[in-house]
TrEMBL record:
This is Endopolygalacturonase. The keyword Ribonucleoprotein does not apply. Residues 64-96 are annotated as: Disordered. SUPFAM superfamilies: Pectin lyase-like (SSF51126). The lineage of its organism: Bacteria, Pseudomonadati, Pseudomonadota, Betaproteobacteria, Neisseriales. Keywords: Glycosidase, Hydrolase. It comes from Silvimonas iriomotensis. Belongs to the glycosyl hydrolase 28 family.
Length: 751
């Protein structure tokens, strides 16, 4: 198996040097010490000074007749005078969003320059590749379930057109001489080191470079995130019957149809989801912590103020314009929608903006940047060939979330202070495929503006992009050549989750336990020559959060993933595959090697019973059928996994006739080699069912069970020396936060 190149067995190998492929025969592998890995492509680099299109300096915020510096405190927060709110009235846009226009203007100018220099070259290369692929397009066989016939059918379909590969377009000839917009600290005496901005559009070929010491703060003004005049953001409901959705809001950084774009630097981006939401339109409905609302969407739409006592339509109770309670924060909305309203109705959700959303790209890089306190998911890339996340730090919440002028820890509306358990849906990275293939021109500039009438009423929203005039580029829609390495991640939800929800090949959506010939995510698809595998998750440090996950959407399949040399400390989960029969599909050939897990709530969690979501339906020939999307996890391999401290494990396959669907048993098929706990009695197997397990050198409580349909090949034994499996002595490090924003404390470096 491919994993043998990076792992040796408990007694046979390991390495004490930096190269993941070089081993001595007498020492176990040291997790967390690798600095060079021949399996990976070259490390990204920051731009040089000569490659910068524009340098923008932090500057004070103009508030009335005063110039107020935008200066981060040591804990990462902004003092309240940096962008004050106005009680009972709308804030001034110039105060709440002072830097968006100038940052976007610099990005646009750089995007136009890049396109003028290399746009035609990129388009010509892509056109040639597209023509060749169209001429020689091979057919693929797709299998789908015909509910009327109660049988599988096969269909011959053309493969998606990918155009020029990301590997080809990474060559210097397709990169402009100047391509970066750099944000730097003020050169003046004011000391400003922060920018406050609403949504930005990242153009194709452009790098947003946030320099060391600089923080890009998200505006608190809800109006700047509106995605349309009738799409409402900042709520837990968008009508009396419809729940909220993050798609109602623009992301802070948006990027579509890109080649060679990046966000990098040693600065940070802070979405400030802990801060009170404000509005530049006093008629726009906001919820308050006493559950009242300031207006209704129905009244806002006609430029009116609803009378007190009117039922709210944004998730609150009733309109109360006299309420002195503060407005909710984004995390208030997330907790209310997910933990309270969803628990009551099953339909609650929050309309919160995400930090970064990217759709369709060839070569997209995040490098060395720090991401903090997103209101929803941090990074959502879909349909990227050449996604690199290297040396990135995600910490949510940070100490900034506890800063409050009143000194009361800035609690949730419930009175609870922020923890890893109540900043909901703050996934760090959710990469996946797009819903379809496309041929589209590259985006070279963007504009996101909101004009609020002086007299109130609905705001005029303009969210536009300019595309290259050189022609269209082909994207096959798949996630390919994904490298996620040397990152530090701590958040309130998934640290990284591969999403197998979309398959961009027409007709290839997974139906039934056997699936079809294509997977939404396949690590063996079009692997580049500069790396060993197509999906690599390695050399990362995971803290708070749900660990390294696949799912919960696996309905279109995930296969051939390499996960190695990762550490987990204090995480809720370590290694996890999760799904259910509303979103299930095939997950196979997943290999985990050289893993250290310390004080995790659930070190291993593999379950097809993640939720009880309503089953989807499909209509064929005018008849609507229920779709049972059965989770099928097989050929999962764990090599050299060490569990330290108290923890739990859950190993479950899918039982026959689950939910009355008539499905056959789909057992979890897993091999565990040298998976050991330092204290075997401190690990509880909280659930184990419908599993075929092959074990060697394992001291976890894994036993066969006829009643639970568990078959075990091999014998568990407590006579295992954990120190022979993998060396965790250097696996756990303090979170490398900026300034005083480290929630995890600090210690003297090991001597």
């Amino acid at each position: 198996m491919a994993a043998t190149a990076i792992a040796m067995t408990a007694c046979g190998g390991g390495s004490d040097n930096a190269n993941a492929n070089s081993y001595s025969s007498d020492k176990p592998f040291q997790v967390g010490t690798v600095s060079y890995d021949a399996n990976l492509p070259p490390e990204p680099t920051l731009p040089t000074d000569t490659q910068v299109c524009a340098t923008l300096y932090a500057q004070p915020n103009t508030i009335g007749s005063n110039q107020v510096p935008i200066v981060s405190r040591p804990d990462g927060s902004l003092p309240p005078e940096a962008d004050p709110s106005t009680s009972g009235a709308g804030v001034a846009t110039t105060t709440s969003n002072p830097d968006q226009a100038r940052i976007q203007a610099a990005l646009n100018a750089c995007g136009a320059s890049v396109d003028a220099e290399v746009g035609a070259r990129i388009q010509a290369a892509d056109a040639a590749a597209t023509a060749a692929q169209t001429l020689a397009n091979a057919q693929v066989t797709l299998r789908q379930y015909d509910y009327a016939k109660q049988a599988y059918t096969t269909t011959q379909m053309a493969q998606n057109i990918a155009g020029a590969t990301g590997e080809e377009l990474a060559k210097p000839t397709y990169r402009a001489s100047k391509f970066a917009v750099r944000l730097v600290v003020s050169q003046g005496a004011d000391g400003s080191n922060g920018f406050i901005s609403g949504p930005l559009t990242l153009p194709s070929g452009v790098t947003l470079w946030i320099d060391k010491g600089v923080t890009l703060y998200a505006s608190r003004d809800v109006m700047t995130y509106l995605a349309g005049t009738s799409t409402y953001c900042g709520n837990t409901a968008v009508s009396a019957t419809k729940a909220g959705s993050s798609s109602n809001c623009l992301a802070l950084i948006n990027g579509n149809n890109l080649v060679n774009s990046a966000v990098m630097g040693d600065g940070r981006i802070d979405s400030r989801a802990y801060s009170e939401i404000v509005t530049s339109n006093k008629l726009y409905p906001l919820m308050k912590v006493d559950m009242t609302c300031s207006n209704t969407y129905a009244s806002y739409a006609i430029g009116a103020q609803a009378t007190n006592g009117t039922s709210c339509d944004n998730g609150g109770t009733v309109v109360d314009t006299k309420s002195s309670a503060r407005n909710m924060t984004w995390w208030d909305l997330a907790y209310l929608g997910n933990m309270v309203q969803n628990g009551t109705t099953g339909a609650g959700s929050q309309s919160n903006f995400r930090m970064m959303v990217f759709n369709y790209a060839k070569n997209l890089t995040l490098y060395r940047i720090t991401l903090n306190n997103s209101a929803n998911f941090h990074v959502v890339p879909s349909g990227v060939d050449g996604l690199t996340v290297w040396g990135v730090k995600v910490q949510t919440p940070t100490l900034a979330a506890f800063a409050n002028p009143a000194g009361n820890g800035n609690p949730l509306y419930t009175g609870a202070t922020f923890t890893e358990d109540n900043v909901k849906n703050t996934d760090a990275f959710d990469p996946g495929s797009a819903s379809k293939a496309t041929q589209v021109a590259l985006v070279t500039s963007g504009s996101n503006t909101v004009t609020t009438p002086v007299s109130g009423g609905t705001s005029t929203i303009a969210s536009t992009t300019t595309s290259s005039s050189t022609g269209k580029i082909s994207f096959d829609g798949y996630l390919k050549n994904f490298v996620f390495v040397f990152n530090h991640v701590s958040t309130g939800d998934d640290d990284i989750a591969l999403k197998g929800s979309n398959n961009p090949t027409p007709g290839s959506t997974y139906v039934g336990p056997l699936g079809n010939s294509l997977f939404a995510i396949d690590g063996n698809r079009d692997v580049r020559s500069d790396r060993k595998w197509g999906i690599i998750i390695a050399h990362n440090h995971i803290y708070w959060g749900h660990g390294i996950s696949i799912g919960s959407e696996t309905n279109s399949g995930v296969t051939n993933v390499q996960v190695y040399d990762n550490s987990f400390e204090g995480s809720e989960e370590g290694l996890r595959i999760k799904s259910d029969y509303a979103r299930g599909g095939e997950v196979s050939n997943i290999t985990y090697t050289n893993i250290c897990i310390k004080n995790a709530q659930n070190a291993l969690l593999f379950t097809p019973y993640y939720s009880t979501k309503a089953l989807p339906t499909i209509t064929q020939n005018g008849v609507t059928y229920t779709k049972y999307l059965d989770p099928n996890f097989h050929d999962i391999t764990l090599n050299n996994v060490r569990i330290m401290g108290t923890s739990n494990a859950k190993l479950q396959g899918f039982a026959a006739n689950t939910g009355g669907s008539g499905n056959a048993q789909l057992p979890l098929t897993m091999t565990l080699n040298n998976v050991v706990a330092d204290n075997a009695s401190a690990v509880t197997m909280s659930a184990m069912s419908d599993a075929n397990l092959t074990i060697k050198g394992v001291n976890l409580p894994i036993f066969g069970s006829t009643s639970d349909n568990v078959t075990v090949n091999g014998q568990v034994t407590q006579a295992v020396d954990p120190s022979k499996v993998v060396d965790c002595s250097n696996a756990f490090v303090d979170f490398p936060a900026i300034g005083q924003s480290n929630l995890f404390g600090s210690t003297w470096a090991s001597q």
